[in-house]
Specification:
The complex is a heterodimer.
Chain A (H helix, E strand, L loop, with lengths): L2 E2 L5 E3 L10 E10 L15 E9 L2 E6 L11 E3 L15 E6 L9 E8 L8 E10 L4 E7 L8 E10 L2 E11 L4 H8 L4
Parallel strand pairs in A: 1-10
Antiparallel strand pairs in A: 2-12, 3-7, 3-9, 4-5, 4-8, 6-7, 8-11, 9-10, 11-12
Chain B lengths: L2 E3 L4 E3 L4 E19 L11 E2 L5 E2 L2 E2 L5 E9 L9 E7 L17 E5 L5 E6 L8 E10 L2 E11 L2 H8 L5 H17 L118 H43 L8 H41 L24 E9 L2 E11 L5 E5 L12 H22 L5 E6 L10 H6 L9 H24 L14 E7 L7 H13 L5 E7 L12 H6 E4 L4 E5 L6 E6 L8 H16 L1
Parallel strand pairs in B: 1-10, 15-18, 15-19, 16-17, 17-18
Antiparallel strand pairs in B: 2-12, 3-4, 3-7, 3-8, 3-9, 5-6, 6-7, 8-11, 9-10, 11-12, 13-14, 13-21, 20-21
The chains are: A mainly beta, B alpha+beta.
Chain lengths: 192, 666
């Protein structure tokens, strides 16, 4: 069962039987929107990048993105940069795996962001989504669609944060602008 | 979308590797004939049947069964083959039905390897026939197609084969029926032994070391017939000879590919290294709430050796990252406490009354709590890694094992070069008891430098004489290990010892006679050895660059060469130094390696001239030293060389074995 999340909604990552999730995958998929008008065949490739920023007490401590694919502690792994999207035709083009049990104890929030590295706005992106999958059984926990992209080049998708002994996922869905996660820092901070 | 064919209809095939599944309700015999472009069968060797179940690109069951899976690789068919006919026939004798009219309509399907149906056909309208051509795969303008045929023969296989133009048809039909009758008599047969080709292949070195490592391949495929010892035309089926030099092996490993029903073997019949790897040891399910019990070889790889290698590297990375998590958490706790204390102090209100103390205590409590949590997480991970290390270490082959490992006492000269060599152990200060084997790939990519300078870890500048002796012992241990893990005669060790100061340490190498030549002494000896090795590098490089590797002089020793250099730079003239630098730079690519036992200070007179030399060598120390960094987070790891336990005879035993093997080899 998938929860289609709306902006600001939070779900607990506690399993039904009360045990916490151990590993989740944040998947990002997209396709380039078809161009209207002449020369439609001149497809333009769109490079979206997924990043995860690890925070401890509102300070960024580590970041996982296409130039640093594994967090220093090994708990967060990026599966690799995808420059064009649409390979899976609905599957994940980029994914970030989080081994929640191994996240260092001082990390209390992990924020997932999406940037358009090539600079196209989300208007030119089609079928973009971000989803959270339970990595142990492949079940989709939550899906957030990048609907109504608008004139933005980045989006702060969601965050997982500690609550009690487990983790909670909150959909953020804040549009902003930036080429890489560094540009987004000012926009991320209010959400912590 | 699967196409349901009717009689006579054809359908294109997009894949060349296919399975043909047959479901008949009652046991039937499945066979296949190959035809040339005129549909002619050239002889009995163009028929795959239970007596001869494998042909290139084609494999049928060895028994009559209600369900069959025929493996077809159209890409592997000989060029001359233009048609493959799939035949079904009812087995003669026994109490089965004698005509297809008495059984349910047979169903045949062409599927991909993943089981997706491409085309299917139900053979209806059969009555008195006891043999039928079910399908035909045929080449049409370079592409393969399938056609539903459904041509039945009341005269059975003999009539069918005669109709296909095979002169020896009655004879062949008889032998097929005989093979089937035999197959029916043997209801359950043992799985076939793996066909070993040469014992130099990697995959034979896969002892199953896990608790229930082997035997996981007996899967019951649907409709599978019991596999028989293959009577295939390929491969001698001798006894599996366990490779030497590997830890005690249980029974010969089971075949990796499930042999039930679909024994598709796409490997080259004579090239066994392409065979699938032996099954990985399965991890027993963990009791709930506890981490899984570690198992040696629990990593990817084609052989146990590769799996262990990958597992060791996995442990290395896990330890590095776990420690990074712990250190970053503690650092964070420290910096947070500092900040909070600063705040408490700078707030003027806190100076009055107990507020400041309270804030300080709170900050310290927060710090302690976070550090405790981090320590708990670290301890949990360390416990898991320690448990893994405890099962992995005893399972390591000699090349990966410490000298104290019992595997060295059962040492035998290996038949092939191992993947990697253990140069020592690595550990981190937080967990000194958890040691990760430091494995480097073979052949060596860089020379080694055993540093006899006194920069030991604890700063106590040990007696430099003692250090030199330790460095030499370390060098001998490494050289002996290299000699031992290479096959007989494939590794040669030269020693340059101008002043003869290493004579004592070199005794194990000299007395067992494993050196290529006695240690070279004096300036003349140095020049001689260096010149010979330099010439060798020149020659081999020239041959390789000129693409004429086979034109090397016949007397050239093809073994890898290791040159141990002691007492550098004493006894070295400028020319010798240049040659040494040349060897360090160019040697590794043509199998000439350096092992310098030197103190950099001794050569300080050369100034920066020698910096590239030292940089090009991998520095190892005779005493524990934290000069090595991991590739992931860059911790400083304490390296401890792999040394022979004091008083142990293992080095001498191993070297004697090496020397004996070498004389035999010659």
């Amino acid at each position: 069962m998938t929860v289609n999340m709306t902006k600001g909604q939070a779900i607990s990552l506690q399993k039904n039987d009360g045990t916490g999730l151990t590993a989740v995958r944040m998947g990002l998929g997209w396709q380039a929107a078809p161009r209207r008008g002449l020369f439609g065949s001149r497809t333009r490739e769109i490079d979206l990048d997924a990043s995860a920023v690890l925070f401890a007490d509102k300070q960024p401590v580590d970041v996982v993105f296409f130039r640093h694919l594994v967090s220093d502690d090994g708990s967060v792994r990026h599966t690799g940069d995808n420059l064009v999207g649409g390979v899976g035709q609905g599957g994940d083009d980029e994914a970030i795996l989080v081994d929640l049990a191994r996240v260092p104890v001082h990390i209390d929030q992990i924020v997932f962001t999406v940037n358009s590295f090539t600079g196209q706005t989300f208007q030119e992106v089609q079928n973009a989504f971000c989803r959270l999958v339970d990595e142990t059984n492949g079940q989709e926990l939550a899906r957030y669609t990048l609907a109504g992209g608008g004139q933005y080049t980045a989006q702060i998708m969601a965050k997982v944060h500690r609550s009690g002994s487990g983790w909670t996922l909150t959909a953020l869905g804040t549009p902003t602008n930036g080429r890489t996660f560094q540009d987004l820092m000012p926009a991320i901070l209010p959400h912590l | 979308m699967a196409a349901e064919l009717v009689r006579g209809q054809n359908h294109p095939l997009s894949q060349v590797r296919l399975e043909i599944r047959v479901a008949a309700g009652k046991p039937v015999v499945a066979a296949a004939t190959l035809g040339d472009e005129h549909g002619r069968i050239h002889g009995v060797e163009w028929v795959a049947h239970p007596g001869t179940p494998t042909l290139p690109g084609l494999e049928v069951s060895k028994q009559a069964a209600a369900d069959h899976r025929l493996a077809v690789d159209l890409g592997a068919m000989p060029e001359a083959v233009h048609r493959v006919s799939v035949l079904l026939s009812l087995p003669l004798g026994g109490d089965g039905p004698a005509r297809f009219g008495a059984v349910a309509a047979p169903f045949v399907a062409v599927t991909g390897l993943d089981g997706t149906e491409v085309a299917s056909y139900t053979i209806t309208g059969l009555d008195a026939e006891s043999a039928v051509v079910a399908l035909e795969l045929y080449r049409r303008q370079g592409a393969w197609k399938v056609r539903a045929v459904g041509q039945g023969y009341a005269g059975g296989l003999a009539e069918l084969l005669t109709d296909q133009g095979l002169p020896q048809a009655p004879h062949l039909a008889g032998s097929i029926n005989e093979a089937v009758a035999q197959g029916l008599a043997r209801s359950v047969a043992a799985p076939p032994p793996r066909t070993p080709d040469a014992d130099r292949t990697r995959q034979t070195a896969t002892p199953a070391l896990g608790p229930d490592a082997s035997g996981s391949t007996t899967q019951g495929a649907p409709g599978a017939v019991a596999p028989q010892p293959p009577t295939s035309p390929y491969g001698a089926q001798g006894a599996v000879t366990p490779p030497s030099g590997y830890p005690a092996e249980p029974a010969p490993t089971q075949p990796a590919a499930p042999t039930t029903g679909v024994p598709i073997d796409y490997s080259h019949p004579r090239r066994q290294s392409g065979a699938p790897p032996a099954p990985a040891p399965t991890v027993p399910p963990a009791p709930p709430g506890q981490p899984a019990q570690p198992v040696a070889g629990d990593a990817t790889g084609w052989s146990m050796e590769e799996r262990l290698y990958n597992q060791v590297w996995g442990m290395f990375e896990d330890l590095a990252r776990t420690m990074a998590a712990y250190r970053s958490a503690v650092d964070f706790a420290d910096s947070r406490m500092e900040k909070e204390l600063d705040q408490a102090l700078s707030d003027p209100r806190s100076r009055i009354g107990g507020q400041g103390d309270a804030a300080r205590e709170a900050a310290q409590a927060k710090h302690a709590q976070l550090v405790d949590q981090a320590r708990a997480a670290l301890d949990r991970d360390l416990a898991q890694l320690t448990a893994e290390s405890e099962v992995v270490e005893p399972a390591l082959p000699p090349a990966f094992a410490g000298w104290d490992n019992p595997v060295w006492h059962g040492y035998r000269v290996p038949m092939e070069i191992p993947m990697a060599l253990r140069l020592g152990d690595l550990h981190l200060p937080e967990s000194p008891e958890l040691r990760i084997p430091m494995l480097v790939r073979l052949p060596l990519e860089r020379g080694l430098w055993i540093d006899s300078g006194d920069e030991s870890l604890d700063g106590s500048s040990a007696d430099s004489h003692e250090l030199r002796r330790l460095a030499l012992d370390t060098a001998v241990a490494h050289a002996a290990r290299l000699l031992a893990v290479y096959p007989a005669g494939e590794f040669a060790v030269h020693v340059i010892d101008p002043a003869g100061s290493a004579a004592q340490a070199l005794v194990p190498l000299v007395h067992t006679g494993v050196l290529a030549a006695p240690p070279a002494v004096g300036a003349a000896g140095v020049t001689d050895v260096l010149t010979r090795l330099t010439q060798r590098v020149d020659l081999v490089q020239m041959a390789v660059r000129g693409g004429a590797a086979d034109s090397l002089p016949p007397g050239l020793d093809t073994a890898e060469q290791l040159l141990i250099v002691n007492d550098f730079p004493h006894g070295f003239d400028d020319r010798a130094v240049t040659q040494l630098r040349y060897l360090a730079d160019e040697g590794p690519s043509v199998g000439v390696h350096l092992m310098m036992v030197a103190d950099r200070e001794d050569a300080a007179g050369y100034g920066p001239l020698l910096d590239p030399l030292w940089r090009s060598l991998m520095r190892l120390t005779p005493l524990p030293d934290d000069h090595l960094a991991d590739p992931w987070v860059g911790h400083a790891w304490t390296y401890e060389p792999a040394l022979v336990p004091p008083g142990s005879q293992v080095l001498r035993q191993v070297l004697t074995e090496v020397a004996t093997a070498r004389t035999k080899y010659r």
